[in-house]
């Protein structure tokens, strides 16, 4: 029924609940699970953000997928992970449509 499941994670409790559901579905339907975290690089003003801030966003996104991968592994599900930089909504759509 479900060949692949994309789970966007942002570190929130709700996204962890989504991962729990994806793990259950993966076991039930033998589905592939992919975890995505997006380092938001949207600017909210006229001046660009400092590069160090982008680096912190990237590192946080990497940590989120690492934690998600470990969590899924402990539940017996192997996952592939992706970290993207950009507008989270757009990155989720692109990843779901084009895979990674």
Short summary of the structure?
This protein is α/β, with parallel strands linked by helices and 100 residues long. It has helices spanning 13-29, 51-74, 88-98; strands spanning 4-8, 32-40, 79-86.
Question: What is the fold's blueprint, element by element?
Answer:
Elements (H helix, E strand, L loop, with lengths): L3 E5 L4 H17 L2 E9 L10 H24 L4 E8 L1 H11 L2
Parallel strand pairs: 1-2, 2-3
Task: Give a description of the structure.
The chain is an alpha/beta fold. It is 52% helix and 22% strand. Strands 1-2-3 form a 3-stranded parallel sheet, sandwiched between helices. The radius of gyration is 14 Å and the shape is elongated.
Number of helices: 3
Q: Given the helix and strand composition, which structural class is it?
A: alpha/beta
Low-confidence stretches: none
User: What is the quaternary state of this protein?
Assistant: single chain
Span between termini:
21 Å
Trace the largest sheet across and list its strands.
1-2-3
What portion of residues is helical?
40-55%
* Spatial extent as radius of gyration: 14 Å
Biggest beta sheet summary: 3 strands, parallel
């Amino acid at each position: 029924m479900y060949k692949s499941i994309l789970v966007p994670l942002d570190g929130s409790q709700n996204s962890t609940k989504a991962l729990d559901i994806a793990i259950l579905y993966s076991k039930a339907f033998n589905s592939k699970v992919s975890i995505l975290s997006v380092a938001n690089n949207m600017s909210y003003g006229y001046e660009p953000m400092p590069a160090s801030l982008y680096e912190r966003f990237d590192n946080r996104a990497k940590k989120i997928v690492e934690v998600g991968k470990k969590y899924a592994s402990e539940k017996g599900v192997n996952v592939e992970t992706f970290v993207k930089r950009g507008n989270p909504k757009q990155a989720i759509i692109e990843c779901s449509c084009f895979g990674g």
